[in-house]
Amino acid sequence: MSKQRKNIQKKAVDAPIKQRQQVQQPAMRSSDINMALLAGVSIITFICFHYTLHNQFLNWDDWIYITKDKYITGFTAANFNSMLFHDITLNYYHPLTMLSLAVNYHFSQLNPWGYYFTNVLLHIINAILIFYFIKTLMKAMVKVGYKEIAIIPWLVAVGALIHGIHPMHVESVSWIAERKDVMYAIFYFIGLIMYVRYTEGAKFKWILYLNIFFVAISLFGVMGLKGYSLDFALKGRNFSINDSLICAFFLILTASAIIAELKFKEFKIELFYVLEFFLLSLLSKPMAVSFPLSLLVIDLLLKRDKNFIAQSGNWIYDEGRALAKLALEKWVFFVIAFLSGLQSVFLEIGHNTVVFTHGYTVIQKLLISSYAFTMYTVDAFYPENLCGYYPYPGISSAHYLPSIYYAAPFFAMAI
After folding, report:
1. Segment 308-328, tens digit of pLDDT
2. What is the DSSP string of 270-322?
């Protein structure tokens, strides 16, 4: 009897342990699958782009960014002033991209291998971020009422792989001067991931350490750039702002975020953290101006507009009012995007970058833009005859564009 009682007790003790093991096993398998899928995406992406490691500098504009660029050759105060506060490439204002090239130059000098390897590595990181963004978004969509999909990890991996190996990214990876594409995308995707988590009420404790780093960098700028200034002209008048004052502004801003995180727990600082990555993306390439619109799309996917609908009976009015409130939540994003876009336009006009469009009317410029948007969409699904340079269309003797351009707006609206 005692032996039987011991066996019964042993089975009773073993049963919960086996149950816990059975519960834990699926989570471990899911984690292993994710890591295996990420490894597969990374390896395949590297295989597709490994040939770029043997490329040389191009004679298009690599000389502007690297071979003839004196500002990336040393980490001096004068060079930092030029890279951080001036458009040294006469193209875009993208200081973080130029700093990354300066780091490359420090280690590789004029050996192109290091620059191409960095581009490939950044592109692989982007594919990984796409994986986590899609996964995070799909899980958030399930929480707000969408039907759960059992094969989410595999679908996510396919999306990340498409981004990683798509031919339209060849230019961004295989052309050193296009470092700005892979740079801005990293901060863009991190910002989107953080915004999805923000809508779920997540906290980002790790940002505290990043802001401490930003405070240290800003303090270095305040001390090291005392004798330099940002000079610009507006309406015929010259203005000058001391670099130290600009760095002091960012010092106060990031220090305030640290204080808010540590002392005011009730203060919702998470949206500011998203804003930080938006700024980092903009400072890598102005193309990031679309970020606030991406946030609104996420709001719609996660049905956040439903929280603001007043149920007045007029669906169009209610939905418009809900979207307006969601946009108002992000007003700072839209203001910064507008100012960044305005700056880019003025820079391009000042450097005669838009000189090639001077022979077209406003309507023709809109037609060309519609055609470009349509063809980008077509190339995303059918990437054939891709090229690094697409010339502007010719104009007939009657001053007309080719007929396909007049149909382009209708295709663009349909898309």
Report:
1. 666 656 667 777 777 888 888
2. HHHHHHHHHHHHHTT-GGGGGHHHHHHHHHHHTTGGGGT----S-HHHHHHHH
